[in-house]
Amino acid sequence: MLDPQNVVSIAEISQYLWNDSIPKQNVFFNGSIDPRKAQQLYMERKALQYGIDQDLAGLPGTSNYLYALCGSKLQLAIEILGTGGGGGGVIPGGGGNFTVYEYTTNAVEGTFTVYFPEAIGKRCVNAFRQGNNIGAILTSGVPTGNQAVWNKDAGSLTVAVAFYDEEFTRVVVQQ
Amino acid sequence: MPFVPNFTASQYSGTPSVITLTDTSTGSDVTIASRRVYLLQANGTFLVPAGTTTDYIVWDLVDTSIDLDVLSQDSALSITVQWMSGIQTVVTSKTISFAFTAYNETFYYGLTESQVANSNLSASVNWYQTKLVLRVEIDSADQAITFASDIYSAQAALNRATYISTNQAYFF
Questions:
Q1: Sheet architecture: strand order including B65-69
Q2: pLDDT below 50 — which residues of chain A?
Q3: How many other β-carbons are positioned within 10 Å of the β-carbon of residue B45?
Q4: Global pTM?
Q5: What structural domains does chain B harbor?
Q6: Measured in whole angstroms, how far is the alpha carbon of residue B117 from the centre of its chain?
Q7: Which residue of B lies nearest to A49 if distances are taken between CA atoms?
Q8: H or E element: which one contains B98?
Q9: Contact B128/A44, CB-based, under 8 Å?
Q10: Chain B partners of A51 at a C-beta cutoff of 8 Å?
Q11: Do the chains contact at B119 and A50, CB–CB below 8 Å?
Q12: What residue ranges do the domains of chain A occupy?
């Protein structure tokens, strides 16, 4: 059985997603398939929340019903909720496994390399550092200027300009 | 440590007529010898269990919580707990407003249960609209309490919700 509390969270995110998309569909595509969707999600979520609070009978059925009601926003809501581990995955488009994860760390002052053990073996699609912009992300060689080198075997990011004390660094990697 | 008065109230779906008060005060005050509860309704009268002849209910100090079987429908109450001295003067008190919504929330949950069994019900405009109104009234009561401790507006909303649930045959 799905964890009802999780379903409440997923439904709340789905409600927002539907609420966001319905007006756009009305403007650009001459109306939505179900304009009541966001409202309905709210109504049934409130019922499920009460059922959870009071430990009422029938929770699995109510939980599944609400889960199904999320419709086409379900998958995105699950991804936003971050049940995928790491820093929470997002699916930028359909087809294939495009799931990406984000990892962060704080660098040691004066060093040029930071390590992300959980990202070993993955392809780096973007990187950020708090102090300086990161330009091209190379996979070999020696970085210059604002370049960075991603070593997927070591899960390391090497930059040309040394990190300052506790500099916040982030990589986005693809599975 | 100085005495800081506080309490909470709860209500359960299976026994919606009963509200449970729990004393969550901290600290101590040696002058406190007894405790009493007032349940003020939106119509200005005090709610008491059957057989009680005073406006208040005595809540023994030895009991951390007390069950009060007083509700016959969803109600908004302004609850005052007074901590009294041995000569029956008020040492300190605390007043908190609550919306007790278990009757209508349980009915509302039942509507969703019916939809689980028969999802076509939500396609009925009558079903859907009335259920939506019920939700709005329950939420209105909660918000009147949360934002303004307004038991009058909350009770008005709960009365409208109760009208729907007690006349369900006409609405669903």
A1: B7-12, B15-23, B65-69
A2: 84-97
A3: 10
A4: 0.70
A5: 7-100 (2.60.40.10), 102-171 (no CATH)
A6: 31
A7: B109
A8: strand B90-100
A9: no
A10: 109
A11: no
A12: 4-81, 100-174
